[in-house]
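User: structure tokens for this one?
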Amino acid sequence: MALFSRNRDSSKGAAPQWNETEMRKHTRRLVFAGMGVIAGIWAFLFIWVLFFAEVQKPEVKALAAGVDLTMVLAPVLAAAAGVERLLETVFNSIEGAWRTLVAYLGYGMRWLKSAETEVAEARQWLQNMGAIYNGNLATNNQQMTQIFNEHKQKMVAVLVQTANDTPDPRLKEAMQTAAQQMNALPAEMLAKMTELLVMPVDLPLPAEVDQKINEVRTALLRQIDQLRAEITAKSEAAEALLKDAQARLGAAEDKLGGATSSPDYRSAKSAVTIVLGLMLGVIVAALGQIQMFALLGVSAIPARIDVLITGLVIGSGSYPVHSLVGILQQGKDALDGLGNFLNNRAAPSVQAVEQRITTVQPGSPGQPPVVGQSVIQTTSAQAAGSTTGG
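Assistant:
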């Protein structure tokens, strides 16, 4: 459990704190313990299959000529494919969760600690860049809100001043109402502020008031343009840093995941896959009562030996099983062809001889003779390869 907790902590961005020597010893003990467990399971499987498993000899039927062995050995092919997929799933889970074992079989513990440290630093860098980017956005929003508030206060001040200075009661009331409504609006609702300044046709704004309002608007637009330019420059810089941090994290994670492509790990994985595959193949053959020789019509092999050999064939993988089926199919086709050839050689040859006989019989008085023909067919049989002597 300690191994898994360390890997989870490092995946969250915390730098690994484990000791390389202790981790190497701990992982080595686990590997040796696993090898011992596998050896014990193998011994148990041999004893169980050869002496205690309930294995029954099925009815063995000779195969007809020209039969497709792929259909005959379909249970063996299906079991081999299932075992292969199961092992792939198991190793994918191990490679994703148990990086310590992968590193022990691949590049070593020092490499693993260096790679995890690089990933942790890259994650921290990405978090810092994200905080900077979000901080810039928050600052820009605050600055924009401040500009809007200043604009609103200036507009309200102009309206209140106009209401105080104008002698027209209608205009005074309109300016006071507009000032109150504008002061109650959020600073971001500039469009609504503009609507509040729309006056009736018969009650236009004085020229000097309209000029002051336009000056406030012009100043606002100028400030917004300056702030937009600053925001664009800062955002581009922050996005560049954020992309660089993401690229660093991706490279670090690719490096950490590259342990599975090391030659040493591939060799170890291949050896373990063969051992586990053969073990699972024997278990599947015993539990499923799959007997390859019985399926092929061979009755001379004992049922327990047939199950054991079938399990080893299943555990070798789908590709070797397909190759074996192809070789058996070619051999069977060759034997069928040879048997047909020998049967044809042993069959007797038949010869037929036809003889035509012409007969002349005298006709009636005054009539010409009658000519007749008859065919006599003689058939003789002779064994192939025999000779006649004189």
